[in-house]
Amino acid sequence: MVDSGDATAVVEMQGITTQFGSQVVHKDLDLCVRKGEILAIAGGSGSGKSVLLREMILLQRPTAGTVRLFDQDAAALTAEEGLALRRRWGVMFQKGGLFSALTVSENVGLPLRELDVLDAARIDGIAAWKLALTGLPAEAAHTSTPTP
After folding, report:
1. Of 45, 72, 84, 102, which residue is least crowded by CB atoms under 10 Å?
2. Where are the extended beta strands (E) located within 21-88?
3. For residue range 73-124, what is the model confidence (pLDDT) as tens digits?
4. Proportion of the chain above pLDDT 90, given as a percent
5. 102 and 72 part of one domain
6. Which of 91, 106, 122 is the last residue of a domain?
7. Domain that includes residue 24, residue range
């Protein structure tokens, strides 16, 4: 564990390299975020900010390096442990962005699916109700979300 002085490290990324084909996004990146610390990631378009965040919240694995979250090696987590860990944080995407691979309805129902306490039909009903409250037409629920 990285020496973090008085505060416990909750996110540790060491030697992170991220590559897509021949395109290198990160090379040997180290990052430590301590409990109670507020972190801002700034950079130009295409500099790897979103990629780094996806790796940090277990939506993507780096090409090389280690990610430790709450002193647990992310690569060694079981699916159940990963889910339990992801339930410890929340993420709000820029401009309220949605997951482009999901429909509008799937995006609205996603937090309820993650809780795993309601059946799919009930979640679909709640999502339809929430979308109706926005004034969107019913067919909007089944459209793909646009990519930024």
Report:
1. 45
2. 23-34, 64-69, 72-73
3. 999 999 899 888 888 887 766 666 777 778 889 988 988 888 888 999 999 9
4. 45
5. no
6. 91
7. 9-91
